[in-house]
Amino acid sequence: MSQTAPPQDPAGPPSAPVAAAAPASVRRRRLPHRAWLVAAVAFLTIIGAAAFNSLPGLLIDPLHAAPADGGFGWSRGTIGLAAGLTVALSGLAGPFAAALHDRFGIRRVCAVALTAIASGSLLSVWMTASWQLVLYWGVLVGLGTGSMALAFAATVTNRWFVARRGLVTGVLTAAGASGQLVFLPLCSWIVENHGWRPAVVTTGLAALVAVPFVWLLMRDHPADVGLAPYGSEVFVEKPAPQPGASRRALRVLRDASRTGPFWLLAGTFAICGASTNGLIRTHFVPSAHDHGMPITAAASLLAVIGIFDIIGTIASGWLTDRYDSRRLLAVYYGLRGLSLMFLPMLLGASGGEVQPPMVFFIVFYGLDWVATVPPTLALCREHYGEDSAIVFGWVLASHQLGAALVAWLGGLTRDLTGTYDAVWLTSGALCALAATMALVIRSGRRGADGELQTGPSPSRTSSRR
Protein backbone atom coordinates (compact mmCIF):
# COMPACT_ATOMS: atom_id res chain seq x y z
CA MET A 1 0.00 0.00 0.00
CA SER A 2 1.35 3.40 -0.93
CA GLN A 3 2.11 5.88 1.83
CA THR A 4 2.01 9.68 1.77
CA ALA A 5 5.43 10.92 0.76
CA PRO A 6 7.32 13.81 2.41
CA PRO A 7 7.86 17.01 0.40
CA GLN A 8 10.56 16.77 -2.24
CA ASP A 9 13.19 19.28 -3.18
CA PRO A 10 11.99 20.87 -6.43
CA ALA A 11 15.59 21.52 -7.44
CA GLY A 12 16.52 17.87 -7.06
CA PRO A 13 16.50 15.27 -9.80
CA PRO A 14 13.18 13.82 -10.91
CA SER A 15 12.22 10.68 -9.05
CA ALA A 16 9.74 7.86 -9.50
CA PRO A 17 6.13 8.86 -8.92
CA VAL A 18 5.09 8.60 -5.29
CA ALA A 19 1.87 8.90 -3.42
CA ALA A 20 0.92 12.42 -2.43
CA ALA A 21 -1.79 14.10 -0.47
CA ALA A 22 -5.03 14.18 -2.42
CA PRO A 23 -5.69 17.53 -4.13
CA ALA A 24 -8.53 19.72 -3.04
CA SER A 25 -10.59 18.54 -6.01
CA VAL A 26 -10.61 15.00 -4.61
CA ARG A 27 -13.71 14.63 -2.46
CA ARG A 28 -15.76 11.75 -1.27
CA ARG A 29 -18.57 11.06 -3.66
CA ARG A 30 -21.76 9.13 -3.26
CA LEU A 31 -21.69 8.14 -6.93
CA PRO A 32 -19.92 4.89 -7.87
CA HIS A 33 -16.18 5.27 -8.16
CA ARG A 34 -14.93 6.03 -11.68
CA ALA A 35 -12.89 2.83 -11.52
CA TRP A 36 -16.06 0.83 -12.10
CA LEU A 37 -16.80 2.71 -15.34
CA VAL A 38 -13.24 2.09 -16.53
CA ALA A 39 -13.62 -1.60 -15.67
CA ALA A 40 -16.93 -1.72 -17.58
CA VAL A 41 -15.34 -0.15 -20.68
CA ALA A 42 -12.44 -2.59 -20.39
CA PHE A 43 -14.95 -5.45 -20.20
CA LEU A 44 -16.72 -4.32 -23.40
CA THR A 45 -13.38 -3.73 -25.14
CA ILE A 46 -12.12 -7.22 -24.36
CA ILE A 47 -15.39 -8.65 -25.68
CA GLY A 48 -14.88 -6.81 -28.99
CA ALA A 49 -11.28 -7.97 -29.23
CA ALA A 50 -12.24 -11.55 -28.35
CA ALA A 51 -14.81 -11.83 -31.13
CA PHE A 52 -12.18 -13.17 -33.54
CA ASN A 53 -11.22 -15.93 -31.09
CA SER A 54 -14.49 -17.69 -31.88
CA LEU A 55 -13.54 -18.13 -35.54
CA PRO A 56 -10.53 -20.48 -35.99
CA GLY A 57 -12.30 -23.60 -34.74
CA LEU A 58 -15.30 -22.83 -36.95
CA LEU A 59 -13.25 -22.20 -40.09
CA ILE A 60 -10.96 -25.24 -40.11
CA ASP A 61 -13.40 -27.37 -42.08
CA PRO A 62 -14.62 -24.59 -44.45
CA LEU A 63 -11.06 -23.55 -45.35
CA HIS A 64 -10.03 -27.21 -45.67
CA ALA A 65 -12.87 -27.84 -48.12
CA ALA A 66 -12.19 -28.04 -51.86
CA PRO A 67 -12.41 -24.82 -53.92
CA ALA A 68 -15.60 -26.11 -55.51
CA ASP A 69 -17.17 -26.10 -52.03
CA GLY A 70 -16.02 -22.56 -51.19
CA GLY A 71 -12.73 -23.48 -49.49
CA PHE A 72 -9.08 -23.55 -50.49
CA GLY A 73 -8.13 -27.19 -49.92
CA TRP A 74 -5.55 -26.18 -47.31
CA SER A 75 -4.48 -28.87 -44.83
CA ARG A 76 -5.62 -28.73 -41.23
CA GLY A 77 -1.98 -28.41 -40.23
CA THR A 78 -1.61 -25.25 -42.34
CA ILE A 79 -4.76 -23.71 -40.89
CA GLY A 80 -3.68 -24.77 -37.41
CA LEU A 81 -0.30 -23.10 -38.01
CA ALA A 82 -2.01 -19.78 -38.81
CA ALA A 83 -4.26 -20.11 -35.77
CA GLY A 84 -1.27 -21.06 -33.64
CA LEU A 85 0.73 -18.06 -34.86
CA THR A 86 -2.20 -15.83 -33.91
CA VAL A 87 -2.07 -17.21 -30.39
CA ALA A 88 1.74 -17.13 -30.17
CA LEU A 89 2.12 -13.51 -31.28
CA SER A 90 -0.78 -12.60 -29.05
CA GLY A 91 1.19 -13.93 -26.11
CA LEU A 92 4.53 -12.44 -27.12
CA ALA A 93 2.95 -9.01 -27.62
CA GLY A 94 1.46 -9.03 -24.12
CA PRO A 95 4.47 -7.96 -22.03
CA PHE A 96 5.46 -5.29 -24.54
CA ALA A 97 1.87 -4.05 -24.59
CA ALA A 98 1.93 -3.70 -20.80
CA ALA A 99 5.04 -1.53 -21.12
CA LEU A 100 3.46 0.42 -23.99
CA HIS A 101 0.47 1.15 -21.75
CA ASP A 102 2.89 2.88 -19.39
CA ARG A 103 4.57 4.76 -22.25
CA PHE A 104 1.67 5.88 -24.45
CA GLY A 105 -1.41 5.28 -22.31
CA ILE A 106 -4.15 2.67 -22.34
CA ARG A 107 -6.47 4.53 -24.70
CA ARG A 108 -3.99 4.92 -27.55
CA VAL A 109 -2.64 1.39 -27.38
CA CYS A 110 -6.11 -0.17 -27.24
CA ALA A 111 -7.45 1.92 -30.12
CA VAL A 112 -4.54 0.88 -32.35
CA ALA A 113 -4.84 -2.76 -31.27
CA LEU A 114 -8.56 -2.92 -32.04
CA THR A 115 -7.92 -1.39 -35.46
CA ALA A 116 -5.27 -4.04 -36.18
CA ILE A 117 -7.70 -6.82 -35.23
CA ALA A 118 -10.39 -5.37 -37.50
CA SER A 119 -7.92 -4.96 -40.38
CA GLY A 120 -6.67 -8.54 -40.14
CA SER A 121 -10.22 -9.89 -40.02
CA LEU A 122 -11.54 -7.84 -42.93
CA LEU A 123 -8.50 -8.33 -45.18
CA SER A 124 -8.82 -12.12 -44.91
CA VAL A 125 -12.06 -11.87 -46.90
CA TRP A 126 -9.93 -11.29 -50.05
CA MET A 127 -7.13 -13.77 -49.36
CA THR A 128 -6.24 -16.33 -52.02
CA ALA A 129 -3.09 -17.98 -50.61
CA SER A 130 -2.17 -19.58 -47.30
CA TRP A 131 0.63 -17.06 -46.65
CA GLN A 132 -2.04 -14.34 -46.57
CA LEU A 133 -3.91 -16.33 -43.92
CA VAL A 134 -0.73 -16.43 -41.85
CA LEU A 135 -0.14 -12.69 -42.35
CA TYR A 136 -3.68 -11.49 -41.64
CA TRP A 137 -4.54 -13.89 -38.83
CA GLY A 138 -1.11 -14.55 -37.40
CA VAL A 139 0.51 -11.12 -37.55
CA LEU A 140 -2.22 -8.45 -37.58
CA VAL A 141 -4.80 -10.21 -35.42
CA GLY A 142 -2.12 -11.80 -33.24
CA LEU A 143 -0.40 -8.51 -32.40
CA GLY A 144 -3.75 -6.77 -31.92
CA THR A 145 -5.21 -9.36 -29.56
CA GLY A 146 -1.90 -9.50 -27.70
CA SER A 147 -2.20 -5.81 -26.91
CA MET A 148 -5.75 -6.43 -25.65
CA ALA A 149 -4.96 -9.60 -23.75
CA LEU A 150 -4.95 -10.29 -20.03
CA ALA A 151 -1.96 -7.98 -19.51
CA PHE A 152 -4.39 -5.18 -20.35
CA ALA A 153 -6.75 -6.42 -17.64
CA ALA A 154 -3.82 -6.58 -15.22
CA THR A 155 -2.84 -2.98 -16.01
CA VAL A 156 -6.38 -1.69 -15.48
CA THR A 157 -6.74 -3.62 -12.23
CA ASN A 158 -3.37 -2.56 -10.82
CA ARG A 159 -3.90 1.14 -11.58
CA TRP A 160 -7.54 1.61 -10.65
CA PHE A 161 -8.13 -0.85 -7.80
CA VAL A 162 -6.61 -1.54 -4.42
CA ALA A 163 -9.61 -3.38 -2.99
CA ARG A 164 -11.51 -6.05 -4.95
CA ARG A 165 -8.58 -6.77 -7.24
CA GLY A 166 -9.26 -10.48 -7.37
CA LEU A 167 -12.93 -9.95 -8.17
CA VAL A 168 -12.23 -7.38 -10.91
CA THR A 169 -9.54 -9.60 -12.40
CA GLY A 170 -12.08 -12.41 -12.55
CA VAL A 171 -14.68 -10.19 -14.22
CA LEU A 172 -12.27 -8.85 -16.85
CA THR A 173 -10.95 -12.33 -17.51
CA ALA A 174 -14.51 -13.49 -18.02
CA ALA A 175 -14.94 -10.84 -20.72
CA GLY A 176 -13.05 -13.03 -23.17
CA ALA A 177 -15.49 -15.84 -22.44
CA SER A 178 -18.37 -13.42 -22.90
CA GLY A 179 -17.09 -12.59 -26.37
CA GLN A 180 -17.03 -16.29 -27.12
CA LEU A 181 -20.56 -16.63 -25.72
CA VAL A 182 -21.90 -13.83 -27.91
CA PHE A 183 -20.12 -14.61 -31.17
CA LEU A 184 -19.76 -18.40 -31.31
CA PRO A 185 -23.42 -19.25 -31.94
CA LEU A 186 -23.82 -16.26 -34.24
CA CYS A 187 -20.71 -17.02 -36.30
CA SER A 188 -21.47 -20.74 -36.48
CA TRP A 189 -24.93 -19.95 -37.86
CA ILE A 190 -23.43 -17.50 -40.37
CA VAL A 191 -20.79 -20.02 -41.50
CA GLU A 192 -23.36 -22.78 -41.98
CA ASN A 193 -25.93 -20.64 -43.78
CA HIS A 194 -23.94 -17.92 -45.56
CA GLY A 195 -20.31 -19.09 -45.69
CA TRP A 196 -17.19 -18.13 -43.80
CA ARG A 197 -16.59 -14.67 -45.26
CA PRO A 198 -19.60 -12.92 -43.65
CA ALA A 199 -18.56 -14.41 -40.31
CA VAL A 200 -15.09 -12.89 -40.66
CA VAL A 201 -16.63 -9.51 -41.50
CA THR A 202 -18.80 -9.74 -38.37
CA THR A 203 -15.83 -10.18 -36.05
CA GLY A 204 -13.93 -7.35 -37.75
CA LEU A 205 -16.82 -4.94 -37.26
CA ALA A 206 -17.14 -6.00 -33.61
CA ALA A 207 -13.57 -4.84 -32.97
CA LEU A 208 -14.20 -1.52 -34.72
CA VAL A 209 -17.34 -0.82 -32.68
CA ALA A 210 -15.29 -0.94 -29.45
CA VAL A 211 -12.90 1.84 -30.57
CA PRO A 212 -15.13 4.87 -29.75
CA PHE A 213 -15.94 3.45 -26.30
CA VAL A 214 -12.23 3.24 -25.54
CA TRP A 215 -11.44 6.71 -26.86
CA LEU A 216 -14.33 8.53 -25.19
CA LEU A 217 -14.70 6.75 -21.85
CA MET A 218 -11.40 5.06 -20.96
CA ARG A 219 -8.90 6.93 -18.79
CA ASP A 220 -5.30 5.92 -18.24
CA HIS A 221 -4.98 6.58 -14.51
CA PRO A 222 -7.15 7.64 -11.52
CA ALA A 223 -5.11 10.85 -11.28
CA ASP A 224 -6.50 11.88 -14.67
CA VAL A 225 -9.87 12.48 -12.99
CA GLY A 226 -8.51 13.59 -9.59
CA LEU A 227 -9.26 10.36 -7.73
CA ALA A 228 -7.43 7.89 -5.57
CA PRO A 229 -7.64 4.25 -6.67
CA TYR A 230 -10.74 2.39 -5.55
CA GLY A 231 -10.30 1.11 -2.01
CA SER A 232 -7.59 3.61 -1.09
CA GLU A 233 -7.69 6.99 0.65
CA VAL A 234 -4.26 7.93 -0.70
CA PHE A 235 -4.03 9.92 -3.93
CA VAL A 236 -1.27 8.66 -6.26
CA GLU A 237 0.29 10.93 -8.84
CA LYS A 238 0.16 9.68 -12.40
CA PRO A 239 3.55 8.24 -13.37
CA ALA A 240 5.44 10.09 -16.05
CA PRO A 241 5.58 8.31 -19.43
CA GLN A 242 8.39 5.80 -19.35
CA PRO A 243 10.51 5.71 -22.51
CA GLY A 244 12.11 2.50 -23.69
CA ALA A 245 9.04 0.27 -23.35
CA SER A 246 10.74 -2.63 -25.08
CA ARG A 247 13.87 -2.33 -22.95
CA ARG A 248 11.77 -2.26 -19.80
CA ALA A 249 9.83 -5.37 -20.83
CA LEU A 250 13.08 -7.22 -21.52
CA ARG A 251 14.66 -5.99 -18.29
CA VAL A 252 11.69 -7.23 -16.28
CA LEU A 253 11.94 -10.59 -18.06
CA ARG A 254 15.64 -10.78 -17.23
CA ASP A 255 15.05 -10.06 -13.55
CA ALA A 256 12.03 -12.34 -13.22
CA SER A 257 13.75 -15.22 -15.04
CA ARG A 258 16.28 -15.34 -12.21
CA THR A 259 13.56 -16.38 -9.79
CA GLY A 260 12.00 -19.80 -9.28
CA PRO A 261 8.35 -18.70 -9.07
CA PHE A 262 8.50 -17.21 -12.56
CA TRP A 263 9.40 -20.49 -14.24
CA LEU A 264 6.78 -22.42 -12.30
CA LEU A 265 4.09 -19.87 -13.14
CA ALA A 266 5.18 -19.82 -16.79
CA GLY A 267 5.18 -23.61 -16.96
CA THR A 268 1.75 -24.03 -15.42
CA PHE A 269 0.29 -21.29 -17.59
CA ALA A 270 1.78 -22.83 -20.75
CA ILE A 271 -0.13 -26.00 -19.92
CA CYS A 272 -3.21 -23.89 -19.22
CA GLY A 273 -3.05 -22.41 -22.71
CA ALA A 274 -2.35 -25.79 -24.30
CA SER A 275 -5.44 -27.31 -22.65
CA THR A 276 -7.84 -24.42 -23.38
CA ASN A 277 -7.21 -22.03 -26.29
CA GLY A 278 -4.94 -24.37 -28.20
CA LEU A 279 -6.98 -27.50 -27.63
CA ILE A 280 -10.67 -26.97 -26.89
CA ARG A 281 -11.20 -23.62 -28.60
CA THR A 282 -9.37 -24.66 -31.79
CA HIS A 283 -10.09 -28.38 -32.10
CA PHE A 284 -13.26 -29.23 -30.17
CA VAL A 285 -15.63 -28.26 -33.01
CA PRO A 286 -13.81 -30.24 -35.76
CA SER A 287 -13.31 -33.18 -33.37
CA ALA A 288 -17.00 -33.28 -32.49
CA HIS A 289 -17.81 -32.96 -36.19
CA ASP A 290 -15.60 -36.02 -36.83
CA HIS A 291 -18.01 -37.96 -34.60
CA GLY A 292 -21.05 -36.75 -36.53
CA MET A 293 -22.06 -33.73 -34.44
CA PRO A 294 -23.27 -30.71 -36.46
CA ILE A 295 -21.01 -27.67 -36.39
CA THR A 296 -23.75 -25.48 -34.90
CA ALA A 297 -24.32 -27.97 -32.06
CA ALA A 298 -20.59 -28.19 -31.28
CA ALA A 299 -20.25 -24.40 -31.40
CA SER A 300 -23.23 -24.06 -29.07
CA LEU A 301 -21.46 -26.33 -26.59
CA LEU A 302 -18.45 -24.02 -26.71
CA ALA A 303 -20.78 -21.11 -26.05
CA VAL A 304 -22.10 -22.94 -22.99
CA ILE A 305 -18.48 -23.25 -21.85
CA GLY A 306 -18.41 -19.45 -22.13
CA ILE A 307 -21.45 -19.10 -19.86
CA PHE A 308 -19.99 -21.22 -17.08
CA ASP A 309 -16.54 -19.75 -17.67
CA ILE A 310 -17.92 -16.38 -16.56
CA ILE A 311 -19.33 -17.93 -13.39
CA GLY A 312 -16.18 -19.91 -12.66
CA THR A 313 -13.78 -17.04 -13.28
CA ILE A 314 -15.65 -14.54 -11.13
CA ALA A 315 -15.94 -17.15 -8.39
CA SER A 316 -12.22 -17.84 -8.72
CA GLY A 317 -11.51 -14.13 -8.28
CA TRP A 318 -13.59 -14.13 -5.10
CA LEU A 319 -11.77 -17.24 -3.83
CA THR A 320 -8.38 -15.73 -4.71
CA ASP A 321 -9.06 -12.83 -2.34
CA ARG A 322 -9.54 -15.35 0.47
CA TYR A 323 -7.51 -18.54 -0.09
CA ASP A 324 -4.02 -19.69 -1.04
CA SER A 325 -3.61 -19.18 -4.79
CA ARG A 326 -1.25 -22.14 -5.10
CA ARG A 327 -3.79 -24.61 -3.76
CA LEU A 328 -6.50 -23.15 -5.95
CA LEU A 329 -4.32 -23.67 -9.03
CA ALA A 330 -3.58 -27.26 -8.02
CA VAL A 331 -7.29 -28.02 -7.72
CA TYR A 332 -8.14 -26.30 -11.01
CA TYR A 333 -5.47 -28.09 -13.04
CA GLY A 334 -6.13 -31.46 -11.42
CA LEU A 335 -9.85 -31.36 -12.20
CA ARG A 336 -9.21 -30.12 -15.75
CA GLY A 337 -6.81 -32.97 -16.48
CA LEU A 338 -9.27 -35.52 -15.14
CA SER A 339 -12.07 -34.20 -17.34
CA LEU A 340 -9.89 -34.28 -20.49
CA MET A 341 -9.10 -37.94 -19.89
CA PHE A 342 -12.80 -38.76 -20.25
CA LEU A 343 -13.45 -36.63 -23.34
CA PRO A 344 -12.47 -39.18 -26.06
CA MET A 345 -14.85 -41.69 -24.51
CA LEU A 346 -17.66 -39.11 -24.35
CA LEU A 347 -17.21 -38.10 -27.99
CA GLY A 348 -17.11 -41.72 -29.14
CA ALA A 349 -20.30 -42.57 -27.27
CA SER A 350 -22.20 -39.48 -28.37
CA GLY A 351 -23.16 -40.80 -31.79
CA GLY A 352 -23.17 -37.23 -33.08
CA GLU A 353 -25.78 -36.14 -30.53
CA VAL A 354 -25.47 -34.01 -27.41
CA GLN A 355 -25.82 -36.51 -24.57
CA PRO A 356 -26.15 -35.64 -20.83
CA PRO A 357 -22.56 -36.80 -20.02
CA MET A 358 -21.27 -34.38 -22.66
CA VAL A 359 -23.33 -31.56 -21.16
CA PHE A 360 -21.82 -32.37 -17.75
CA PHE A 361 -18.30 -32.19 -19.23
CA ILE A 362 -19.05 -28.84 -20.85
CA VAL A 363 -20.39 -27.35 -17.61
CA PHE A 364 -17.53 -28.78 -15.56
CA TYR A 365 -14.89 -27.64 -18.04
CA GLY A 366 -16.46 -24.22 -18.39
CA LEU A 367 -16.22 -23.54 -14.67
CA ASP A 368 -12.51 -24.35 -14.84
CA TRP A 369 -11.63 -22.74 -18.22
CA VAL A 370 -9.82 -19.57 -17.11
CA ALA A 371 -10.37 -19.87 -13.38
CA THR A 372 -6.56 -20.15 -13.28
CA VAL A 373 -6.08 -16.48 -14.22
CA PRO A 374 -6.99 -14.67 -10.93
CA PRO A 375 -4.70 -16.84 -8.73
CA THR A 376 -1.88 -16.70 -11.31
CA LEU A 377 -2.10 -12.90 -11.49
CA ALA A 378 -2.28 -12.72 -7.69
CA LEU A 379 0.93 -14.74 -7.42
CA CYS A 380 2.63 -12.45 -9.95
CA ARG A 381 1.53 -9.43 -7.91
CA GLU A 382 2.63 -11.13 -4.72
CA HIS A 383 6.14 -11.89 -5.93
CA TYR A 384 6.88 -9.04 -8.36
CA GLY A 385 5.07 -5.96 -7.06
CA GLU A 386 5.03 -2.97 -9.41
CA ASP A 387 6.41 -5.07 -12.27
CA SER A 388 3.64 -7.64 -11.88
CA ALA A 389 1.65 -6.55 -14.95
CA ILE A 390 4.69 -6.98 -17.21
CA VAL A 391 5.72 -10.23 -15.49
CA PHE A 392 2.19 -11.49 -15.98
CA GLY A 393 2.51 -10.48 -19.63
CA TRP A 394 5.51 -12.81 -19.97
CA VAL A 395 3.70 -15.56 -18.08
CA LEU A 396 0.78 -15.02 -20.45
CA ALA A 397 3.22 -15.32 -23.37
CA SER A 398 4.03 -18.84 -22.19
CA HIS A 399 0.27 -19.51 -22.03
CA GLN A 400 -0.14 -18.47 -25.64
CA LEU A 401 2.95 -20.33 -26.82
CA GLY A 402 1.59 -23.50 -25.24
CA ALA A 403 -1.73 -22.85 -26.94
CA ALA A 404 -0.04 -22.18 -30.29
CA LEU A 405 1.96 -25.40 -30.11
CA VAL A 406 -1.13 -27.52 -29.45
CA ALA A 407 -3.20 -25.64 -32.05
CA TRP A 408 -0.60 -26.68 -34.65
CA LEU A 409 0.18 -30.16 -33.28
CA GLY A 410 -3.50 -30.94 -32.83
CA GLY A 411 -4.20 -30.31 -36.51
CA LEU A 412 -1.04 -32.19 -37.52
CA THR A 413 -2.00 -35.16 -35.34
CA ARG A 414 -5.45 -35.24 -36.89
CA ASP A 415 -3.91 -35.22 -40.39
CA LEU A 416 -1.54 -38.09 -39.52
CA THR A 417 -3.71 -40.33 -37.34
CA GLY A 418 -7.25 -39.42 -38.32
CA THR A 419 -8.26 -38.77 -34.71
CA TYR A 420 -7.72 -36.30 -31.86
CA ASP A 421 -7.70 -38.92 -29.07
CA ALA A 422 -3.93 -38.77 -28.42
CA VAL A 423 -4.12 -34.97 -28.09
CA TRP A 424 -6.87 -35.13 -25.43
CA LEU A 425 -5.05 -37.75 -23.35
CA THR A 426 -1.67 -36.02 -23.53
CA SER A 427 -3.20 -32.70 -22.48
CA GLY A 428 -4.87 -34.38 -19.50
CA ALA A 429 -1.52 -35.75 -18.34
CA LEU A 430 0.08 -32.31 -18.70
CA CYS A 431 -2.63 -30.80 -16.49
CA ALA A 432 -1.73 -33.28 -13.75
CA LEU A 433 1.88 -32.07 -14.04
CA ALA A 434 0.71 -28.44 -13.76
CA ALA A 435 -1.18 -29.25 -10.55
CA THR A 436 2.04 -30.54 -9.01
CA MET A 437 4.05 -27.54 -10.19
CA ALA A 438 1.54 -25.13 -8.64
CA LEU A 439 2.06 -26.61 -5.19
CA VAL A 440 5.83 -26.10 -5.49
CA ILE A 441 5.53 -22.31 -5.93
CA ARG A 442 6.72 -20.48 -2.84
CA SER A 443 4.19 -18.45 -0.93
CA GLY A 444 4.64 -14.67 -0.84
CA ARG A 445 3.60 -12.14 1.78
CA ARG A 446 0.17 -11.28 3.10
CA GLY A 447 -0.56 -8.55 5.56
CA ALA A 448 -2.37 -8.88 8.86
CA ASP A 449 -5.63 -8.06 7.07
CA GLY A 450 -5.10 -10.87 4.58
CA GLU A 451 -4.44 -8.55 1.65
CA LEU A 452 -1.55 -9.27 -0.67
CA GLN A 453 1.46 -7.03 -0.07
CA THR A 454 2.91 -5.62 -3.27
CA GLY A 455 6.60 -5.11 -3.84
CA PRO A 456 9.51 -7.53 -3.65
CA SER A 457 8.63 -10.29 -1.21
CA PRO A 458 10.98 -12.34 0.95
CA SER A 459 10.42 -15.29 -1.37
CA ARG A 460 11.54 -13.20 -4.31
CA THR A 461 14.64 -12.06 -2.47
CA SER A 462 15.57 -15.54 -1.35
CA SER A 463 15.08 -16.96 -4.82
CA ARG A 464 17.71 -14.62 -6.20
CA ARG A 465 20.36 -15.71 -3.77
CATH architectural designation: Up-down Bundle
**Strand content bin:** under 5%
Shape: globular
> What separation lies between the terminal Cα atoms?
26 Å
Structural class: mainly alpha
This entry's quaternary arrangement is single chain
Overall mean pLDDT: 78
Q: What is the makeup of the main sheet?
A: 2 strands, antiparallel
Count of discrete alpha- or pi-helical segments spanning 4 or more residues: 18
- Low-pLDDT windows of residues: 1-22, 445-465
**Helix-strand pattern:** EHHHHHHHHEHHHHHHHHHH
**Range of helix content:** over 70%
CATH class: Mainly Alpha
CATH fold topology: Growth Hormone, Chain: A
Tell me the domain tally.
1
Strand order of the largest sheet: 1-2
Subcellular location: Cell membrane
Transmembrane segments: 35-59, 79-100, 109-129, 135-155, 167-191, 197-218, 261-280, 292-319, 331-352, 358-379, 391-410, 422-441
Pfam families: MFS_1 (PF07690)
Organism: Streptomyces polyrhachis
